[in-house]
Hints:
The structure is a homodimer. By secondary structure, the first copy, chain A, is α+β, with helices and mostly antiparallel strands. In chain A, 43% of the residues lie in helices and 19% in strands. In chain A, the strands form two sheets. Chain A has a four-stranded antiparallel beta sheet, with helices on one face. A two-stranded antiparallel sheet of chain A has the order 1-2. In chain A, helix 1 crosses helix 2 (68-92) and helix 3 (130-140) packs antiparallel against helix 4 (172-196). The first copy, chain A, is elongated and about 90 Å long. Chains A, B: Residues 33-82 form the BHLH domain.
Amino acid sequence: MPIAQSLVLDNEKEKLVKTSEKKSGISEVKKMMALKKHSESEKRRRERINDHLITLRGLVPSNEKMDKAMLLAEVISQVKQLQKNAAQSSEGLNIPLEFDEVKVEKLEGYAGNGSSSFRASLCCDYRPDLFSELRRALDDLPVHLVKAETSTLGGRTKNVFVFTSSGEGKNENTEARELISSVRGALSNIVNKASASAKHTQELYFPRKRQRVSYFDSSSSSS
Amino acid sequence: MPIAQSLVLDNEKEKLVKTSEKKSGISEVKKMMALKKHSESEKRRRERINDHLITLRGLVPSNEKMDKAMLLAEVISQVKQLQKNAAQSSEGLNIPLEFDEVKVEKLEGYAGNGSSSFRASLCCDYRPDLFSELRRALDDLPVHLVKAETSTLGGRTKNVFVFTSSGEGKNENTEARELISSVRGALSNIVNKASASAKHTQELYFPRKRQRVSYFDSSSSSS
DNA sequence: CGTCACACGTGAGGC
DNA sequence: TGCCTCACGTGTGAC
């Protein structure tokens, strides 16, 4: 179709110059209006997208000077990171596992003063005397408890302790190793005692939907 | 600059016709190559951006059928939500406050199925019967407990529950409001009872260093 | 000069 | 058909 050269776009605003002769008139102007609508609506679309990108720029820590692709990459890593954290704090870390576990480890962060801090966790079936046993065990150890946290779900319980060594020094690493192993031993005893007396092994895990959750007691039938 | 009309774009592929006279030949070819480079580079840029958008599509819960703008909106709310959660769980959430507090709120994130989820927290002095009272109170309420978490520090305790409505619907918002207020009422009762019987107000807050921490019992002398 | 990132207008294809 | 979204090539301005 040799309509080429028939249209020249002026640099003036929306001026349409027709150099050919035949079939002039209405259809052309209609096309133009359609095109105009189209380009305006496309502009709106771009605006919408870019507004969202601007908003996102405000949400990521790193400041202005990033192009679109970098921004999106940042957002991606941000989301991944946050999701991981959320998953950790709501699944991995705080929701009791379905198998028994004792973990003791040194925390790399500072403890404030010189002494290092530790994190111990144990996961087992819940039983009423668990907490008093734990307290007794921890009182007997040369540790300084900083934080205790327990979560209970579906008859299982997970307990996390953060503590520092009581500070009666000798070599730091030696002390840390001894402390870790004694804490681990104490907690393991408790967990093993628990599983020895475990007869109420009902609902060790739950089918992920509509599970009935009892708070601090797996046997009471509740409401 | 009257270079206008000097260039006419043919509808043929990449044919550039110069209607003026001088300087024909090589420079035109160069221009063409430059244009080609340009468009290829633009294509790469678009690819980078779109790849990131694809990745993001995989990270948001809601599935495929969203256009770019909606996707970005989703990402924005997702990021905001996760940031809020992260802030909550890393700051205020886990360390018991030094003043009593009851908070119940609707969580904005999805609960998976239709029903919304809620977060209730209360902070008060620890006392031995606290947990059984809490359990009784929660059993009496039409809630479906998803997660329970308690932390204890310096004779104070903070308890956080995440739950969904039991789903016996009516209007969602109405139900949510009623649920929130009844949960708040129940928890407030417990906290107030606690502070009423509070005589052992020793060490309500601690000087941040070398505090003595008791696990689940602020009054017993331990060991 | 090249190169980069952005906005624009336009064609294609889906409802 | 009209309106939408998307990809493309190009114009432009900043280093």
